[in-house]
């Protein structure tokens, strides 16, 4: 049963990218079925199923978000101001259903991860290897489409991002982000190899570095600025935080900075298209993220406490669009997940959500053991935060799965270590002091 549960959990890392990122309702339904099978299988094992307190807190948080979304959709509020004349906060009354389905699936995945991690001590390595397999499969698909001249996502013909490598995604940032995660996972797996010298490690595990270079080349072909920035940040964090031969932290920081500069220089020469896209950020005649973010901030200022409800971002952006924003486009996201959260739930709920995420990750990295695993988690967290600020794609199951799985695995290991610590001896259990007067 444990093997079946683990398979249902790990298979989603490979399936989600193949299913257009996994965010479509039909794709999310497939992932949810796998999650349910895994939970049922592990519950059918002999012996009691123990749920950790942090998993219960997780479900309390999910219940709170869904409950607030339902409350936003009820017609129990004063009549809202123009142009949304209705006795409810939510612009789309039934919009909370899709969000609730996504949150319940995510909670199920995290619960299944915690249950499997209790019985599988090497789950982090398994997740990292599966992530590399998923990235390799996407590279094969993207390379095949390029060689055959297909402008396709393998589901439908591309309408945008023509000439960019996207694999089975419809978005180049999603493909680039997955490649960035794959690069860091390869570095982690390379560092996991025990060897007495650098030469022997290269001989035994050099294939991981070769795969990392293949993923880096594919990332540049996607022309994703966000993916490239995430890869630089993630690799730098992992190299700096992972113990190595160079013990001087300042020297390691300097060498890492020089390495990042060298990589940027090589990419500028090898991939001029990507470099031109970075240069385009300085142009004022293009529709930039700042116009969209200013629109979102204006909308948030209108309802900072209550938000606008689930699935209503497109309507809000269209109404509050700044003069420089193309109001004819369907802006279903502000391309910043924290602004999206504030638009949907309101600022107070977003701050509570951010605090909960920070507390969870701090608890996950609190354990001092396995510094390379901690470095991996911090790198993924840094990449995820950067991705959440620059685009909406981090909510895709294909991208959020490896991050939350590794975080939950680490969190479970941290609490397991605390539970295993012997309790301090009480006064009655301590050795008596010998009576010197006898």
TrEMBL record:
Keywords: Membrane, Transmembrane, Transmembrane helix. This is O-antigen ligase-related domain-containing protein. It is found in: Membrane. One of its GO terms (cellular component) is membrane. Residues 212-354 form the O-antigen ligase-related domain. Its main location: membrane. It holds the Pfam family Wzy_C. It is a multi-pass membrane protein. It comes from the Bacteria. It comes from Thalassospira profundimaris. The chain crosses the membrane at residues 26-44, 56-79, 99-119, 131-150, 170-190, 202-220, 226-246, 253-276, 343-365, 377-401.
